[in-house]
Amino acid sequence: METVRLTGMAHGGDAVGHLSDGRAVFVGFAIPGEVVHVEVTTDKPRWARARLLEVLEPSADRVAPPCPYYGTCGGCRLQHIAGQRQAQLVGQVVAEQLQRLGGVDNPVVAETVRPADYGYRSRARFAVDRAGRLGFRKAASHDIVAVERCLLLDEATQTAREAAGDRWTGATEVEVRSGVRGAAAIVDVVAKPRGRPALPPGELAVTRRGGGPPLRGDPVVTESVAGMDFRVSPGSFFQANRAGAEALVALVCRAVAAGDRVLDLYAGVGLFARALAAKGAEVTAVEAGAAAATDARHNLSDLPPSSAAVGQDLSSSAAVGSGPARVVRAPVERYLAEAAANGTQADVVVLDPPRRGAGTAVVADLVRVARGTIVYVACDPAALARDARALLAAGWRLTEAVPVDQFAQTAQIEVVATFTPAR
Ligand SMILES: C[S@@+](CC[C@H](N)C(=O)[O-])C[C@H]1O[C@@H](n2cnc3c(N)ncnc32)[C@H](O)[C@@H]1O
After folding, report:
1. I want to staple 370 with a disulfide (CB 3.0 to 4.6 A). Which of 13, 184, 349, 396 is the partner?
2. Of 350, 419, 417, nearest to 384 (Cα)?
3. Atom of ligand 1 nearest to the CA of 248
4. 352 lines ligand 1 (CB under 6 A)
5. Is 292 in the pocket of ligand 1 (CB under 6 A)?
6. Residue 212 has pLDDT above 90, yes or no
7. Would you give the end-to-end CA distance of the chain in angstroms?
8. Catalytic residues
9. CA dist., res. 381 & res. 95, Å (int)
10. How far is the CA of 378 from the centre of ligand 1 (A)?
């Protein structure tokens, strides 16, 4: 057993301190500033992981976690910390990642935007245990803890989870989602690839992941963000927190003026593209997923026509739309390589890549196409930091990073970062 004073927070939600031999130690469920007793569970030459045994000097920000599954379920990591302090720690993690992994000196990290503490999720992916019950994986484990009520879900999504029931033997995962209109369960079935999973009683729409006719009802939901409606098909991504999505839209829109030629990369169903076009920008939305690109075309189809959107028409029939927003169904890698090669220029490029980030090849083409501002919406500050390093090397600078703590209680952090040419 060791006594440790915790001094910071690591990406992932563990508090960090030092053992008596000087190695960094990561401790879950502790808070920077606390003095704790720990037992080392993982010993490495330069660092260690330890289990919290006792809090000797508790932080004033320590609160009683409201969820009975907390500590067992791997979803939440921060319920023991008051909301305001979580927001502050999120900002510190973002700054630390940008400095250490991104090589950004004194990054300007704005105050964290935090839309809600609990009851915010409009979708959740449940694992299925051997008895067919829905639950979440335990931390660092494949074991599943059955969860009847998750405090992160909004009311409609908790209702949909209850309607989905706990008789999913044969399924591996069940995603439950709800929109402002419609709710659905999207099921992954591996045990019976061609079989039909037993449906729960009631009317909840059910469909299989990966396409095919719905098993029951209409699994397409309508989402609404900042007064705009979006069709979201079962195979399409949509932000899991409606108020969070609204905050992201507002931050992305700040960088764009009417008349700007804007590229919206990794566009999903057109969340940012629609808001930017409504602001008077000429937008080209690039999305690889078939379902999302089809939804985006639908979601952008009622905008009033105007002149041209960004740059060239991709040779394929994938580019559709001649109004203020058009949708290109293509991998960003291919689209940008072609755009860079034929001299396309955009005033603003918005990118919202998957968790792994954009990568150096995309950044290399991105900086040939972007003229004024790059707005990077990141769901992992570490991936953002790696891409920031490549942007800095290419002569850009980070003007501001705004953490959006839309997954309160968890270690997941969203960031909207703005880059401009350094010259
Ligand atoms: C994090 S989501 C963002 C969607 C959208 N910006 C939003 O906020 O709703 C990332 C999107 O990128 C798409 N995607 C992933 N890899 C891609 C690639 N290489 N090229 C184009 N789109 C990709 C996914 O299908 C998904 O819709």
Report:
1. 349
2. 417
3. 8
4. yes
5. yes
6. no
7. 54
8. 379
9. 9
10. 11
Whether 230 is in the pocket of ligand 1, judged by its Cβ within 6 Å, is: no
- Per CATH, 2-62 and 241-421 having the same topology is answered no
- Taking CA atoms, 7 is separated from 26, 29, 84, 376, 388, in Å, by 11, 14, 18, 30, 26
Q: How much is the pTM?
A: 0.95
Domain ranges of the chain: 2-62, 123-221, 241-421
| Cα 259 from Cα 9, distance rounded (Å) | 43
Tell whether domain 241-421 is in CATH 3.40.50.150: yes
For residue 269, the ligand 1 atom closest to its alpha carbon is 9
CA of 267 to the centre of ligand 1 (A): 5
pLDDT digits (tens, 9 = 90+) for 34-70: 999 999 999 999 999 999 999 999 999 999 999 999 9
Distance from residue 333's CA to the centre of ligand 1 (Å): 12
Tokens read off for 80: 């023991």
Q: Which residues contact 346 (CB under 8 A, 6 or more apart)?
A: 261, 262, 263, 284, 310, 311, 369, 370, 371
Contact of 287 with 329, CB cutoff 8 Å: yes
Domain 2-62 has CATH 3.40.190.10: no
Residue 318 pLDDT > 60, yes or no?
no
Residue nearest to atom 14 of ligand 1 (CA): 266
Is the CB of 335 within 6 Å of ligand 1?
A: no
Q: Which of 177, 239, 287 to mutate to test the pocket of ligand 1 (most atoms within 8 A of CB)?
A: 287
**Contact between residue 310 and residue 336 where contact means Cβ atoms under 8 Å apart:** no
Q: Tell me which residue has its CA closest to atom 1 in ligand 1.
A: 354
264-311 pLDDT tens trace: 999 999 999 999 999 999 999 999 999 999 999 999 998 765 444 454
